[in-house]
Design goal:
There is one protein chain. This protein has helices spanning about 5-15, 30-40, 70-90, 185-200, 220-225, 245-265, 350-375; strands at about 55-60, 100-105, 110, 120-130, 135-145, 150-165, 225-230, 270-275, 275-280, 290-300, 305-310, 320-335. By secondary structure, the chain is of the alpha+beta class. A six-stranded antiparallel beta barrel has the order 2-6-3-8-12-9. The radius of gyration is 21 Å and the shape is globular. The N and C termini lie far apart (about 55 Å). This is palmitoyl-CoA hydrolase. It comes from Equus asinus (Donkey).
């Protein structure tokens, strides 16, 4: 009986091998050198302003769903851990007040290829831009089949961190400057910084939105699949300075979004992408957080779920419940063979639901047009 989980792991690896699209040829170099070559073949090494931080971990059954696909939240958590390490390291690279880097935003993240139990995740993070009070980090995730040595790119993500003083975590410190290899690198980074700053401000108007339960909802409606999870923030969720790791929050958000998607289509589902995740405020140890998810839009083969995180500082009567984070997750439904399945169409009922559906449709069409524009013409 003890061998059964590993037998399932190997079966999952064999089943997923045919779907690998991002293979890297093996060479005479050692495993570490081959891994580095693979990462930077698909990454952006020339744009990095620091030595990359690299972590690796084998994917185990606890990291995956019943079909053997690794949870998107598990990958998001690993991405954030690598980003937190390198940004905190940089922010403390000069003499001055010590600080810890806190996650403020994650740009849109696409899950390019599924990762399975038994594969090794290689996560590489590097700094690509710094402003006066923030750090931009680029993270690449590569999965490795340790049975065959083949590798594939699964994720590329951009994260923004701000340095918080260890003496007062409400105080944002200045970021040490970096030296750019070319002027265009700094200008491009500044444009990305201004764009994400504007988008963060635009999300605040939704902060009063609350997901309300409905009795006896009809199938395929928003109310039928909406879900919430209540979690008491403990020491294991937090940094040494008493506020929640961004990766912990993202993992819980993905878990709730996955429940919503599974309730809607009742099949195996996987994370396809995550729109920008905005962290509006820190979550402190001892808070009770409510993670709420609701379906906003469905296309023929995808589902968009809005996830809201509210924090309730129950041990602090001076502070009221507040919106801590928000994002849109996109899921797809898969057959037992791993092929996309049609998604039951969402039935919006209220005017607000219809409005959110149209907004989701706009995001879907915009991203679809962007992907089609990136496809190179066939010779």
């Amino acid at each position: 009986m003890k061998l059964l989980p590993w037998a399932l792991c190997l079966r999952g690896l064999r089943r997923s091998a045919a779907a690998w699209k991002y293979l890297v040829p093996r060479s005479s170099k050692g495993p570490r050198e081959r891994c580095w070559a693979s990462i930077w073949t698909v990454g952006t090494k020339s744009d990095l302003l620091s030595e990359p931080c690299v972590t690796a971990r084998i994917m185990r059954p606890d990291d995956a769903n019943v079909a053997g696909n690794v949870h998107g939240g598990t990958i998001l958590k690993m991405i954030e851990e690598a980003g937190a390490i390198i940004s905190t390291r940089h922010c403390n690279s000069q003499n001055g007040e010590r600080c810890v880097a806190a996650l403020a935003r994650v740009e849109r993240t696409d899950f390019l290829s599924p990762m399975c139990i038994g594969e090794v995740a290689h996560v590489s993070a590097g700094i690509t831009y710094t402003s006066k009070h923030s750090v931009e980090v680029q993270v690449n995730v590569l999965s490795e089949n340790i049975l065959t040595g083949t590798k594939k790119l699964t994720n590329k993500a951009t994260l923004w961190y701000v340095p918080l003083s260890l003496k007062n975590v409400d105080k944002v410190l200045e970021v040490p400057p970096v030296v750019y290899s070319r002027q265009e690198q700094e200008e491009e980074g500044r444009k990305r910084y201004e764009a994400q700053k504007l988008e963060r401000m635009e999300t605040k108007w939704r902060n009063g939105d609350i997901v309300q339960p409905v009795l006896n909802p009809e199938p395929n409606t928003v109310s039928y699949s909406q879900s919430s999870l209540i979690h008491l923030v403990g020491p294991s969720d937090c940094t040494l300075h008493g506020f929640v790791h961004g990766g912990v929050t993202m993992k819980l958000m993905d878990e709730v979004a996955g429940i919503v998607a599974a309730r809607h289509c009742k099949t195996n589902i996987v994370t396809a992408s995550v729109d920008a995740i905005n962290f509006h405020d820190k979550i402190r140890k001892g808070c009770v957080i409510t993670i709420s998810g609701r379906m906003t839009f469905t296309s023929n083969k995808s589902m968009e779920i809005e996830v809201l995180v509210d924090a309730d500082p129950v041990v602090d009567n001076s502070q009221k419940r507040y919106r801590a984070a928000s994002a849109f997750f996109t899921y797809v439904s898969l057959s037992q063979e791993g092929k996309p399945l049609p998604v039951p169409q969402l039935v919006p009922e209220t005017e607000d639901e219809k409005k959110r559906f149209e907004e989701g449709k706009g995001r879907y069409l915009q991203m679809k047009a962007k992907r089609q524009g990136q496809v190179e013409p066939q010779p």
